[in-house]
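Predict structure. Chain length: 284.
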Amino acid sequence: MKVAKLGKSRIFAILTPLVLAGCGATATTATTTTAPSLSSTTLIPPTVTAAPGTTAAPTTTVVEVTPNVSASVFAKSSTSPNYTINISYPVVSGLVSSVDESNINSQIANAVNSWAESFAQNLSLGSSNVQTSTTSTLNGAFKVILADSKIFSVQFVLQTATASNAAATTTISTLNFNLSTGTLLSLPGLFKSGSDFLSILSRDSRSQLQQQLSAQGVAASSLSQSGTSPLPSNFAAFNITSNSIMIGFSQGQAVPSSIGAVTVNVPLADLAGAIDPNGPLANP
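Prediction complete.
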């Protein structure tokens, strides 16, 4: 029996990775110095060699970008009622999606406008009892808590002083964004439905605040039980860090007003059982 002799052929596989404003009031917004850009990382897939006689599926380059953050200032003043407002706030840029970037910046600007309008309206409501010669003030500054390829978390410290209360009062407000969607993150949305995350936040916050009070020589019993109870409103001022949930308590909420505003950090390890496995905390 004769066996046919097969001719030799060469097979080539070419892989090409894919590369991817009120009466008498004036308001201005000024851009200040740009903060140093945070780093961006591009993950390059390894070269893949196809098996003889096959064609390798193309791979896609995954691009991870951290936002650039600059600062702008919302400034507004009025003579009736008599006040000045200056709030510094962040502006993000450099995101892959210009739509998400615009959406995030709009939400930040809207929040700042809301705080300013609320302050002015409260003054207007009480203007008949306030001396017009006294200037009320609202000043705000921000601090970026986390800015990686997935989450942008920023904390605002707002200080108000009025004719009826010359001593500045400090309030903490926060904003947290999912950078992949441009959406604002809520605290309940980080955890599984029906989980006891509020009880854990309350327990850990009380423990840490009692330690802070003791360190300052203040009786632990002065801790406000109502201001730290497991209610969503008590933990609304939250920030996401790389390994914890930071909770901000405005002046007078959790500890004596004389101490001012305070913060605590609840480790993600303590919240592990309550974290939504499909949420942003599951893949920090």
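Summary: DSSP finds two helices and twelve strands in the chain.
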